[in-house]
Amino acid sequence: MRVEGTFSAWVFQRHQGLKEVRLERRTLLAHEVRLSVDACGVCGSDRAVVQSRGQDAPVGMVDPVVMGHEISGTVMEVGGEVSQVRVGEGVVVYPFISCSACRACRAGQPNLCMRQHIVGYHRDGGYAEEVVVPAEVLLARPPNRSAAASALLVDAYATPLHALKSVADVQAEESVLVMGGGGLGLAAIQLVPLVANGPVALWTRRESMREMGARFGAAAVFIGHAENVRNTAREVRRWSGGGVDVVLDTEGSESSLYAALQVVRPGGRVCVVGMSPARAVLPLSQMVRLGITVVGSYASTVEECALLLEWSSAGLLDSGLLVGRSVPMGRLAEALTGNSHAVGRMVFQPGGE
């Protein structure tokens, strides 16, 4: 049965910016599901795309498009071939749709698929009252967790989990320094004990993050500015007994990478997940002499999202700590275009006030 009518959505166009419009519902394909959007995280990547008028967008982003990729919703309607979910069920959306045939997919790295479609960039996403997605990307939402908390698991938590577990390969009791106190950084602090049970610290430029870092589980919080990098790096090396095993850089800038190389131990790893347009000059002789590995990490796998949902359901992970300000339908443009120094992840909730 087709659900008739229209719904509200925020459409982004490179040369016109954001606009709230009414869209016509389309007929579902056999493998698709229509969701009412309960919550959608306001990701920093989306803010960068909107504020750069699409210059920081993933390759091939459609124009116009309804953005928003951290989606938690309720099933409204299912296509004719869909049997794994039913109307009324709460779900989250794994936003990366891979081709399953390219070299990366065959190698078990679907997150690096060069033909992938990302919900919210290559097809309409969750900054709307409704969204249509393939049934294959849906995961059951824990009934004991809020829609907002569950939405953040698919990116804000899944991205650092993939970096820590699958790329940096953090081992038991290794020390980890998280650089950057945004959503990814705070999520990473919570994840380190679950991944490797080692000590974790936060490096941030904001003094106001000291209490929040401790709340999320950081054993130490270091306030590092451009003018005091060397002094702060010495503090980190003292804390870690000569240098940290792994640095997770959620900022991804030249200054953060420079700082990371000052604090990592010989033979340690620096894993970068933050994506800025900046270029970085690396001290090659230092990296070679100390045997430092610098590696990038992108996105996650659906299996990692499923693991996060299991941890959340079992009470091992409280992603609700990261939920910040609720953004109702009429305030989304402000959330995406304004300056944000809010702690935690803003969450779009179309039914909110």
Can you walk me through this structure?
The structure is a single chain. With 353 residues, the protein is an alpha/beta fold. The chain has two domains: 199 residues, Alpha-Beta Complex (Quinone Oxidoreductase, Chain A, domain 1), CATH 3.90.180; 139 residues, Rossmann fold, CATH 3.40.50. Helix content is 27%, strand content 27%. Strands 3, 5, 6, 9, 10, 17 and 18 form a seven-stranded mixed sheet that branches. Strands 13-12-11-14-15-16 form a six-stranded parallel sheet, sandwiched between helices. The chain starts with 5 loop residues before the first strand and ends in a 5-residue tail after the last strand.
Topology:
Elements: E1 6-13, E2 17-24, E3 32-41, H1 44-51, E4 65-66, E5 70-78, E6 90-93, E7 96-97, H2 103-106, E8 117-118, E9 130-134, E10 138-140, H3 147-151, H4 158-167, E11 176-179, H5 183-195, E12 200-204, H6 209-216, E13 220-223, H7 229-240, E14 244-249, H8 254-263, E15 264-272, H9 284-290, E16 293-296, H10 302-313, E17 323-327, H11 332-337, E18 345-348
Parallel strand pairs: 11-12, 11-14, 12-13, 14-15, 15-16, 17-18
Antiparallel strand pairs: 1-2, 1-4, 3-5, 3-9, 3-18, 5-6, 6-10, 7-8
Helix pairs in contact: 4-5, 7-8
Properties at a glance:
353 residues, alpha/beta, Quinone Oxidoreductase, Chain A, domain 1, Rossmann fold, seven-stranded mixed beta sheet, 27% helix
